[in-house]
Write a structure and sequence with these properties.
Blueprint (H helix, E strand, L loop, with lengths): L5 E6 L4 E7 L7 E6 L4 E5 L5 E6 L4 E2 L3
Length: 64
Amino acid sequence: MDVPGRVIQIDPSDMSTVATWTGASGENEVKSVIFDGTYIYAGLYTGPGKVVKIDPSDMSTVTV
């Protein structure tokens, strides 16, 4: 079953979900997440591997 991967933004004060990024078809396994202070980067376990850049203000994929 091909279930898209997700990155969930959480409010640390109460651990509630603020927003969610959901991958496109084929982007089904998020293996790593890093935040550089501006963007979120999600490393996907796809063939070939892929890194997605996410804007945390609206959890949208940033195209480059």
